[in-house]
């Protein structure tokens, strides 16, 4: 998919970080949404289809780990990337183990590395969505096949009944007109 087909959400309480990341990903053609808090981010997620979330780990009110944890309910397929200025091993472990964060990026980030991580994350998002679409399609097709199998069974049963009736009539006619069969063979 093209970048314009994807929406990225960035959540950070630092406006400079939001502006920098928004510029970077808007320039690359992505739809970019920003939020200054976890609550604001959740509100956005409830109304927008977001494929990838980049969230700061340390934010006031609601931590980034808590925010990312809540995003699993609202946007279960979205790829999650945690970003922080602090090398907090426990926060990284919590983010990775409890919230399915795919990457943990330290500030200041390498722009090219982050762009690559986002592209990979969105490819993963597309793959997950396509797998779900194909799974649902297979369920629909299986249901349709099951209906057709039932209809075919009914048709086969009806045909067997009709054949049995015709064979019965033929037997009665053969009994009533035994010479007809003999003439037919000659």
Task: Provide a descriptive summary of the structure in words.
By secondary structure, the chain is of the alpha/beta class. It folds into 2 domains: 3-131, Response regulator (Rossmann fold, 3-Layer(aba) Sandwich), CATH 3.40.50; 138-185. It has 6 helices and 5 strands, in the order βαβαβαβαβαα. It has helices at residues 15-27, 38-47, 64-74, 89-99, 111-176, 178-185; strands at residues 7-11, 31-35, 52-56, 79-84, 101-106. Helix 3 links the parallel strand 3 and strand 4. Helix 2 packs parallel to helix 3 (64-74) and helix 5 crosses helix 6 (178-185). The longest helix is centred in the C-terminal third of the chain and has 66 residues, at 111-176. It starts with 6 loop residues before the first strand and ends with a helix.
